[in-house]
Structure formats: structure tokens, C-alpha cells
Design a protein that fits this description.
With 50 residues, the chain is α+β, with helices and mostly antiparallel strands. It is 34% helix and 36% strand.
Length: 50
């Protein structure tokens, strides 16, 4: 099953995308959580500057 998932992620349609993982601190508890986003490669640099 893992081979099938890897094969679909490497298809020609997904070649312009990157997975961006950010750490976000919760204002209530102070704990860190991870937020994952899949975005086009062109938008990654702009998202990291925020």
C-alpha cells in the first residue's frame, strides 16, 4: 500500500507543489503544534516571510 501512495505523490500533476510544515504556538496552553500546508512552489517563499 505504501508503494501506491508514493506513486501517486510523484505523478506529473503534483510536480509544482511543496509541503510546508510550520510550528504554531497555542495562545491558551503555550504548547507547540504543527500546521501542514501543500502549496505551489511559487508561494512558498512568500509564506515563509510572514
Amino acid at each position: 500500500m505504501a508503494k501506491k501512495t508514493v506513486a501517486t505523490l510523484k505523478s506529473k500533476d503534483t510536480k509544482g507543489y511543496a509541503k510546508l510544515i510550520r510550528t504554531v504556538r497555542s495562545p491558551k496552553t503555550g504548547a507547540y503544534t504543527f500546521r501542514e500546508e501543500i502549496m505551489p512552489l511559487d508561494d512558498v517563499q512568500a509564506a515563509l516571510k510572514k
